[in-house]
């Protein structure tokens, strides 16, 4: 019903699912007019009424004023019951024969030297009208980066899947040979206490859920950013930290017991230095090439962040958005229990850093 109401200029629409996330499903739409001619490819996004309303608002306030030519253009929307759909076009798409692929596809198959220009284009050019105009103001980072706002049942899911109670202050990590702060305890008991903790810091417009499946690339390497339902001003480092848990925890190899230990030593290395001062050491003895690739890309991301905040070294403002997207991994239905356990230990390492800084 939603496609019929949006594509009134078409006699036929073929939908191919591109992604299905926590709050939305995105599909490429190949449409044909009433004479059977193929029209330019568009994207159809189906999500809740509230998510769609937020995205339309963010588009008008924060997108078309700053990054229009590298973003989606809303061509129409429609509702049915509790659901709504958005029809997107891309300003630079080159006719009906255009092809679109995710940055995630490029990440997995291309070497680092070929990826660097893509990341430079996204973070250093396309989105720089956002990031390059930071405003210093007082923010409440623990309230801003509380993952329970989107994932309200993290602690319950952790107990069900991992058998870890939020009432225990520490967890044992045998692979590292030591105890770590229990991130679910920290989320349940410490985040509420720190909700009103205030600090002067840099704020910019940020995407809010920028990941490798929200960046599309066509056959001429034109880049388009999509999905703006969470776009608004917040901690200027948010988008850079968002990518880390995706490429370290979800895209690396985790098949053998040794993989868990190797990845944890790598993740521990990432927390050994301030992300706003130095690039982290590469502490990895495994054989997965995606780990070293992640390390290189993390160096780029943290470098962009340092540029935005002019090298000011307050690492808590990087660790908190990183934790915001690491703790909820336990709720991701498509991931296996071992990967969720890895995310628990990674969250514990971050909580250790954050507790020492507050």
Strand order of the largest sheet: 1-2-3-5-4
* Largest β sheet strand count, sense and barrel closure: 5 strands, antiparallel
Element order: H for helix, E for strand: HEEEHEEEHHHEHHEEHEEEEHHHHH
Strand content: 15-25%
Number of helices: 13
User: Globular, elongated, flat, extended or rod-shaped: what is the shape?
Assistant: globular
Oligomer: single chain
Task: Give the fraction of residues assigned to helices.
Answer: 40-55%
Low-confidence stretches: none
| DSSP strand count | 13
Average residue pLDDT: 93
Supply Rg. Answer: 21 Å
Whole-Å distance between the termini?
A: 51 Å
Q: Which class of secondary structure composition applies to the elements?
A: alpha+beta
Spell out the key features of this protein:
3-stranded antiparallel sheet, 13 strands, 358 residues
Q: What does this entry look like structurally?
A:
It is globular and about 70 Å long. The strands form four sheets. The protein has a five-stranded antiparallel beta sheet with strand order 1-2-3-5-4. The protein is α+β, with helices and mostly antiparallel strands and 358 residues long. The protein has 13 helices and 13 strands.
Brief account:
The chain has 358 residues and is an alpha+beta fold.
List the helices and strands and how they pair.
Layout: H1 2-6, E1 12-20, E2 24-32, E3 42-48, H2 49-63, E4 72-80, E5 83-90, E6 100-102, H3 103-109, H4 112-126, H5 128-131, E7 135-139, H6 141-144, H7 154-162, E8 170-173, E9 178-181, H8 183-190, E10 199-206, E11 215-218, E12 223-225, E13 232-235, H9 238-250, H10 257-270, H11 289-308, H12 316-324, H13 337-357
Antiparallel strand pairs: 1-2, 2-3, 3-5, 4-5, 6-11, 7-10, 8-9, 10-13, 11-12
Helix pairs in contact: 4-11, 9-11, 9-12, 10-13, 12-13
